[in-house]
Amino acid sequence: MKKQGLLFFALLVINVAISAKELDGSQPPSLNDYKIGETWVWKYKGATSSGEVRAEGTDTKTIVDDNGVVSMKTQHGMIPLKHIVKPEKSDTPRYHWPLQAGKKWKFEERWTSEDGTTGATIQDAEVLSYQQETVEAGTFMAYTIRYKGTISNSRGYRADSEDIYLYAPTLKTFIKLTQSQDSYVYVEELIEHKIEK
Q1: Domain residues of the chain, as ranges?
Q2: Among 38, 57, 111, 158, which residue's beta carbon has the most beta carbons within 10 A?
Q3: pTM higher than 0.90
């Protein structure tokens, strides 16, 4: 009986290793990977090292049919899903597909905030691992991607920054994000994922 138990455990470990290897090298999600009613909910909190809370709450995104257009509903409105899955044409992308443990690249983003402030994020990116990660929403195979560099804006702000993303291919998004800028730390974690049947 003990041998059967050990054999079962060994087969289980091999299957998990094979599954992990098959998914390592993930491609970006396509339109067909999303389902109407699929919902993600994150909790977030941003605070300084002195304990001052600057951001706290929840963020929800849901896939909906918006008058015949499959879209992602966010707190700020509707985004047609075809825009979200459109391949990013950049030499310095957020995600450099296919994702694989050990992969490195440069990430650069120029942006404008809601108040008109412009800025730039310039970071070195590296996929540190691909393994099971647990967050409040559950346990998922995820890539740990570290982005390290600087963030600056048109108001004279400049800071060293480090972002750690846990990206889960089966959920098509990150399940945890930890951002550090000088004395400020922002954490966003997936607390729920559901697909309506």
Answers
A1: 2-27+41-59+88-194
A2: 38
A3: no
Q: How far does CA 89 lie from the centroid of its chain? A: 19
* Whole-angstrom distance, CA of residue 101 vs CA of residue 20: 11
Block residue for tokens 């992969």: 103
- Partners of 73 in the β-ladder: 62, 78
Query: Can you read off the two tokens belonging to residue 130?
Result: 């691909």
CATH class of 2-27+41-59+88-194: mainly beta
Write out the E strands in the chain: 39-48, 53-66, 69-74, 77-80, 104-112, 118-135, 138-153, 158-168, 173-181, 184-194
Copy the structure tokens of residue 173: 């998004």
User: Which residues are CB-neighbours of 146 under 8 A, at least 6 positions away?
Assistant: 125, 126, 128, 162, 163, 164
Residue 37 identity: G
Based on its alpha-carbon atoms, the radius of gyration of the chain, rounded to whole angstroms, reads 19
DSSP string of 181-193, one letter each residue: ETTEEEEEEEEEE
